[in-house]
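The freezer alarm interrupted the setup, so I double-checked each line after restarting. Inputs confirmed:
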Amino acid sequence: MRQKKLRNIGTFLVFGGPSLFAFTAVVLIPLAFGLYLTFTNWNMATGAHAFIGLDNYRQIITDKTYLGQLWFTIKYALLTVVISNVGAFFLGLILSKGFKGQTFFRTGFFTPNLIGGLILGYLWQFLFSQVLPFMGQKYGWALFQTSWLSDTTKAFWALVIVNAWQLMGYLMIVYIAGFVSVPSDILEAASIDGAGRFRKIVSVILPLSVSSIVVCLFLSISRSFLTYDLNLALTNGGPYGSTELASFHIVQKAFLSNEYGMGQAEAVVLFIVVAAIALTQSSLMKKLEVEA
Amino acid sequence: MKSSRTSRIAGITGLSLLLIIFLSPFLITILNTFKSTQEFVENPFSMPTEFNFDNYFKAIDEMNFSTAFLNSLIITVVGVVLVVVFASMTAYLFARLPWKINKVLFFIMTASMAIPFQVVMIPLVTIYGTIGFLDSRESLLFMYLGFGVPLAIFTFHGFIKGIPVALEEAASIDGSSRLRTFFQIILPAAQAGCLDCGGSRRAVDVERLPAAEPCHPVAGASHSSAFNV
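Predicted 3D structure, all chains:
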């Protein structure tokens, strides 16, 4: 009995040891230290800090700008998640049919993910501020006459479009992995029973890919809530701080206005919101899973 | 027969058009790298008057490109290998041994993916700056491993769950140790998972760590110097 226990501990250490050690050292310990800092009025420049209890959190809850930004982020994340998942689902459907050259198309749509968000942001910034207005003026399209990034609503849509554009290819790969594993005998049985293409998607493929939908929703929710580099490169919070997403605001607060404890507390609130939404979503969706 | 062929050609044409639109930001940017500043301000769509590689030479000169590229290459290759090997082992542990602690740890890892990088950024730099474990390739690799494993474990967990347990049982009856079973049976069977993690790894990493650079002097300095060891 005792020997078996020792062996189990050995297995645990061999298989889990390295990654758990790195994860604890890099994520959990800094997280705990950061959490402690939210209860202090730590100042980066002087390094002095005193314990002030829940004051930071009390301030956040009454801070209208932060709550506004949180709401802005939620709207942004919702739109991004819906657009990117719907797009990725249909792209995945088309690209898992097994026609010649589909690997080429898969790679093509995945390409934006091979490049970091910062570079993509600068690329699209050039597009939105130079290329599209140029076309708008040349062909008289009112929509593109001025740069999208100088208008609050349009800048918001610019963020959504770019993030959804990038996420789509990534989620597509996850969806394809799900679609490929849908057993072909079930699909055949459905066609024999007279199901059309649309019917097959709704009644066979959709229920059988719930697990990929869960994964995709989780990934897209956490990624879009935590968008930072794209926000920095594309709009830099402008015009006039109207497109600051929550992550961006946190960095501004912590490092530019030097209120580190406050920034850290805002980050913790954001984390709780994201974790709550993402985990509720996956546990609710898990109930919809069916066995093939 | 004929109509199905036409519809297939139409489908591929439509898809190709969609892909071109999808990738147009890259195409337009690449087109403009060959032009002078004046040329692209005048008309971003025009073909370059001559293919001019000056911008590339200038970039390579100014960026100290060869060192930076070598660093990126080393960190990517070693980092991906480390993450794939260690994360797949841990995912195997979590997927196959139903101990309570495994379930708790898996939950924590999954939840940790929702942590904004900004939450750990400064504590990270403060802690590791104090013990002098910054500004080296090793420390950057260690951080990649720590930040990379949650998503990789999450992906592998799904793949490993789909591998039939019977395969392992057969191996263990034949006298294979758990470690050997893992490397000879599970890892080859989860190859698709390796590709998935390996491919997406770079994207996530690039986004996360150096994201600290432009906004924060301390983190920025340490990360960029880490890249130019």
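Quick read of the result. Chain A has twelve helices and no strands.
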